[in-house]
Specification:
This protein is α/β, with parallel strands linked by helices. Helices cover 41% and strands 22% of the residues. It folds into two domains: 120 residues, Enolase-like, N-terminal domain (Enolase-like, domain 1, 2-Layer Sandwich); 228 residues, TIM Barrel (Alpha-Beta Barrel). The protein is built from 14 helices and 15 strands. One of its GO terms (molecular function) is hydro-lyase activity. Pfam families: MR_MLE_C, MR_MLE_N. Keywords: Magnesium, Metal-binding.
Amino acid sequence: MIIRGYKVHHVSKKLSKPLPNAVYALEYIEHVFLELDTGEFTGVGMAYTFNPDQAEAMKILVEGYCRNLVGKDSTYIRKYWQQAQGTMGGCGQTGLPMSAYAVVDTALWDLLAQEAGKPLYQLLGAKTDILPVYGSGGWLVPLEEMIEEALEFKREGYTKYKLKLGFPDWEKDISRLTALREAVGDDFEIMVDVNQGWNVKLALEIIPELQRLGINYLEEPLHCQDYKGNAELVQSTSMRICSGECLFTTREIFELLRLRGADIINPDLMRCGGVTEFIEVCSLAGAFRVPVTAHVLMEVSAHVMAASPTGGLLENIPDWWAGAFELAPVAKAGELKLLDIPGLGIKLNHDYINAYNYQR
């Protein structure tokens, strides 16, 4: 298939209120969407940031990658991934350039599966078409809001909920968790995320308090590239330590796995550089027999997770993507069933794009 053209959209939604975690507060959710056209099929790619200027820069990068693909055969996906990585040499082969290329790479895989007449997960040799999903949120907002959010997920049939930790006085985190446990009961799994806000000493001090509340999943307690610190933590506690969402490509994930710095990894398909590298990251985790839970982007990540050796659990933050898709798999009662539609099974909602199109 020859690539004939493309459209790149920057969609910006200001949140109704800031959402703080241990490190920063989110005020915007920014989407960069791509429609890559061959005349017969349209491939969709997507990424996100939390800052309009970053999203504008990403849009420019995506447009540049796409210009180089017009007139070329869309099936040479690995070739184009390697060429794009070569062009990043002057500005860094991770970060924004890699996240921007993920948008293009994802659209190319969507096109490939559409041409094959298969959903992407089937083309990749899936083991299932239904994946478990946990509800995610729990920002450092008033306690009543956080508890109501968790209860709403539970009413919808979810069995797992993740919230943020990171108040300056960690005893406030424990107080909030105690109230949450009382509200949701013992049959509901609570997962916690520190967004890289602690150090080893502090983590080891707090972990027993978390375990007392029946919590056995701790995400990003330390800086993502503190590989040795993460390894020390894994070896020092029975708490399951999850890390990896802020790492880029197999090179960084490999170092985390090699040093046994995580019991679970949660790679982000966008930061990996798209479907191509996400497949390799999941295969690498399989070689180490480490479980994989995907960081956000569940509508795309699910296709690879469905075919990965140790992958399964998806993350759902409903508000981030609400209204963006005319067609997409939807999480219900703590599960996501992939659609039996060629490609990703995703169509963009152009009314949404037009309504929130970014204007500087």
